[in-house]
């Protein structure tokens, strides 16, 4: 197994960081450079990365999202933002119309590009002997974050990344059985017993922060009343009608 595949296979999320560790500018720049080289649809690069080192801003983020105190305690917090403002400037320069809210496609493009950049940043961080954790729950306060960071129209916060030196070792989390995820040539139905098997695997793994079985967690999540905060933000930012 080569070093890159070994790194990817052993990736894990860290939530406890050395608050005194200072990330060098060289390391930060290497992570950002790697993120920016991620694949992108038509090389559109429909995202912006906001590097947040300011203590007060990070304290505000934690106040809104107290379950993720690492956003303040990590060495740096990166916010990945879907950016369709940049191409609006392009359209204005060319004097062309900007039909950005006619379809969900632009939102998918921006989200995908940002996610690819995020993953590159995660891998680069691990390669430097550091740890990270992705924060998707920032979308619950996307409106407030957009106002705090003065995001212009057609931009929307997607997820964040806390980066630092871990102080608590984490185990590699088991994934779903391969047969439930990987298919060759066509989709192949599989037995629900694979999901039951994964429930048992995760129970044995014993992650303290999990209070429900894997299957119950997502049954509850998708069975609850829909959250429309993201929809509201996208409409406010001129991205959905």
TrEMBL record:
It comes from the Bacteria. Belongs to the flavin oxidoreductase frp family. This is Nitroreductase domain-containing protein. One of its GO terms (molecular function) is oxidoreductase activity. Keywords: Flavoprotein, FMN, NADP, Oxidoreductase. The keyword NADP applies. PANTHER family: OXYGEN-INSENSITIVE NADPH NITROREDUCTASE (PTHR43425:SF2). Residues 9-164 form the Nitroreductase domain.
